[in-house]
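B., you asked whether I could sanity-check this one before it goes into the benchmark set. Here's the sequence:
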Amino acid sequence: VKGGAARRAAAATAPPLALLQDVDALQSSNHSLRRQLASAEESRREASRRAAAEAEALAVANQQLQQQLRVVMEQAEHEVASASAEASEWQRAAKQAAELAERAQATCAAEAGAAAAAAADAAEMAAALEGLQARFDAVDAAVLTPLAQWYEASCGAAPGLPTSSSSASAALPRSAGFIELKARTQQLLGGSSVDEASHQPKIQLAAVAFEALAERLDHLKAELQQLRSEGVRHAAELDRRYGSELAQLRRAAGAADARADAAAREANAARERERIAQARLEQRDEA
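And here's what the prediction gave me:
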């Protein structure tokens, strides 16, 4: 209290000029502070305008980025859907190719079985023809050739079959089959001691019968040879036909397997592309 009173007393006793100087200093300081305040306010407004402009630019950039992100996501989803559809299509193609390969293999197996059966039939026919040829060869050796030799050796003695003379009998072959045939002929004619003149019609008839038998055997031999030729030709035709068909079926099966493998590879590639697209989409979502 005492200090304040002293200051008031000193102020009361101070000259007026000093007070005016203090007032001017205070006013000048006040004006300076006001200018600083106005400058600060202008700086604040400028900073606020810049912040608003930057915020607006950021909002526009964010909107553009969101639009680009939506476009990229739509493209990625479209790529994923396309890759998935392509993978499904290749899977269906691979399945169809596998089914085609299975059908081709089944057809090839069936044709191979048919060809094997036809080859077995041809082999059986060839074996039967060989058996018939052997039988006819045996008949030829046992009957036809001895008859021809007998007829040629005795053709000067009598027409038809030879007589039972010693010269004709000496020229006869001595096989068991021919001896039996000769015995049956002599039994039919009534024995060699019977008068040949009384049995000449029977001799003529037997000669005609033996000639007919020889002609029939020749015909059968020719027919057998023809059958053998046809059998060989048929076997060759079967071999050529079924062999070419089997080769074609094998080539078709190989081509079907190749198409199935290619379809499987394309399906795997499509699945890989789908996986890559899905991974890119997830990375973009994370970003």
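One thing to flag: The chain has one domain: 83-286. Otherwise nothing jumped out at me.
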